[in-house]
Write a structure and sequence with these properties.
1% strand; 2 strands
Length: 414
């Protein structure tokens, strides 16, 4: 639908590769664009992008289940198994009910923040356009997509000092990146001790990453990107920029003007991403936490990671290591191809690749200038970043144990 004259403001067909890139970025909730969303696409094109963002954020199985429920179809056991894996659940029982809860919660959160953003934007944008902007950015934020309509690839830089806009976007980004299972625990359980180990790890890791991101960005960019701003606005901007690199893609500063140290730090945040079962990408917070716990446990003499009085199986450590290894392998290959096909420096291409893999959408402004080969590489990276690590984890989880147990022999490491 994007590859039609109806989808553009000029009425000129955008071309297959441009339409493919944009639709991939939308359904993978990334936010990287080769043409400006607000000025290039028509209202119809923007509506198509928003629909793809919503379907991509909910996930294929959740969206398919929702349509089946609306059509009155029965959900079979095979479909329930797939729903369980897509939502990162342990049991099959109650997955259809969970899908209904996920959809209802999504609608409530998006409507709430759409109202906040609309009320604020109505002061600057007249008529129904302010409502459209409020709805678009609320859905884009909750689904960690990073698409915006403000034009000129500027994201929301001119709203850096506005708490209604910055927090109206940052909060749904955080909520969407926690994962629906953790959100259900937060809503249904009041005491910390009743949270699952998964929920505790997600919340603690998220808080630590947000705090570390705020402090590091504030320290590195205090006299650069944040110079000339009041202290309160600097802290607000630093917090916002600690939220969005973990798969949202909005920005209140000029990313291209940041120090190389900050850009590399952003690459780390983009690589980690959000949490399992969420609208976010990356290798996920629990994968990062599990490897950190493994290193800590090994240093303290434990054979297996131990946290909150619980022992984590080594099989999960191996899966986490596999996800990290495969992710870094693809990123390395993608950057290598981009270095051959593009006339850009290493850091710019590395940043763009991490942004695509983490389904973030932050850019140093080179995406529109990519060659066809470069665009295809970024398209593949967005797909792998959105589906790859989860697919690998699912494949490993379903693997049967070998019948034979081979003799053990050690190798030299380190």
């Amino acid at each position: 639908m994007l590859n039609t004259g109806w989808a553009t403001q000029t009425g000129v067909t955008p071309g297959f590769l441009t339409a493919l890139f944009t639709s991939t970025s939308a359904v993978c909730v990334t936010g990287l664009v080769v043409v400006d969303t607000g000025t290039y696409w028509s209202s119809f094109g923007q509506a198509v992008i928003l629909l793809l963002i919503q379907l991509g954020g909910l996930g294929i199985m959740t969206s398919a289940t929702l349509f089946s429920i609306l059509l009155g179809r029965q959900i079979g056991f095979k479909e329930r198994l797939m729903i369980r894996e897509s939502l990162n659940q342990v049991n099959v029982a109650g997955v259809v009910r969970l899908v209904k809860y996920v959809v209802l919660f999504t609608v409530v959160i998006e409507v709430f923040f759409a109202l906040i953003l609309t009320l604020r934007l109505s002061q600057d944008i007249a008529g129904a356009k302010s409502l459209w902007y409020g709805v678009f950015h609320a859905i884009s934020a909750f689904n960690n997509a990073g698409f915006d309509l403000f034009g000129d690839f500027r994201s929301i830089a001119h709203y850096a000092a506005d708490p209604f806009i910055t927090f109206g976007i940052a909060l749904p980004v955080i909520i969407g990146g926690l994962g629906f299972s953790v959100i259900s625990e937060m809503v249904g359980r009041k005491k910390w001790r009743r949270f699952s180990l998964h929920g505790k790890l997600v919340l603690i890791t998220t808080v630590l990453l947000l705090a570390a991101g705020t402090i590091v960005f504030l320290a590195l960019e205090y006299h650069n990107a944040l110079s000339g701003l009041p202290l309160g606005v600097k802290v607000q901007s630093a917090f916002f920029q600690s939220v969005t690199p973990r798969t949202a893609g909005f920005s209140t500063v000029d990313v291209g003007a940041l120090f190389p140290t900050t850009l590399f730090f952003f690459c780390i945040l983009m690589f980690i991403g959000g949490s399992p079962g969420s609208t976010a990408g990356g290798v996920k917070t629990t994968t990062f936490a599990l490897l950190g716990l493994s290193v800590s446990s090994l240093a303290s003499g434990h054979a297996e990671p131990v946290v909150f009085g619980r022992r984590l199986p080594l099989a999960q450590v191996f899966r986490a290591m596999t996800i990290i290894f495969m992710a870094l392998s693809w990123i390395s290959l993608a950057v290598l191809v981009l270095l051959i096909s593009e006339q850009q420096n290493f850091l710019v291409l590395l940043f763009e690749t991490f942004s695509a893999f983490g389904t973030v959408g932050l850019s140093m402004g080179v995406t529109p200038d990519l060659t066809p080969v470069g665009r295809i590489v970024i398209i593949l990276t967005m797909f792998i970043g959105r589906l790859g690590p989860l697919t690998v984890a699912f494949a490993l989880a379903q693997r049967r144990r070998a019948v034979l147990r081979y003799p053990e022999e050690q190798i030299l490491i380190g």
